[in-house]
Amino acid sequence: MLFNNMRPEEGTRAAMVEAWQTPERKEAVSRAASFDLLYEVLEGFDTIPGGHRDYPAAELIGRIEGVRADQALLGFITNTAGIRDKVRGLLNPEKMIPE
Question: Burial level of 48, CB count in 10 A (0-12/13-18/19+)?
Fold first, then answer.
């Protein structure tokens, strides 16, 4: 039995997150070429639903700043709309620059 084509049950948090992840929102996250641009995108969303709860944009930005400063784990960033993946992609070049 394949589970890849299963949709979350209506009314569940997973269904709410999936409905929130419009192609436009995913594209906006994907196009952010820097942390500053990603923060602008997140501020435009106001609140981002995660797997367990909603995240105000300011809180999510604070978590991202913690990851950038090596004070938090990447796993604490929601991957709704590809946000965690975008942070990972932006971090790689940043961490390769010698200080």
Answer: buried
Which residue, 32, 23, 25, is CA-closest to 88? 32
Largest distance between two CA atoms of the chain: 51
Return the SS3 of 15.
helix
Whole-prediction pTM value? 0.82
Tens of pLDDT, residue by residue over 23-71, are 999 999 999 999 999 999 999 998 999 988 999 999 999 999 999 999 9
CA–CA gap between residue 89 and residue 98 (Å, rounded) = 18
Q: Domain residue spans in the chain? A: 34-96
8 A C-beta contact, residue 60 and residue 78: yes
Token pair for 21: 């992840």
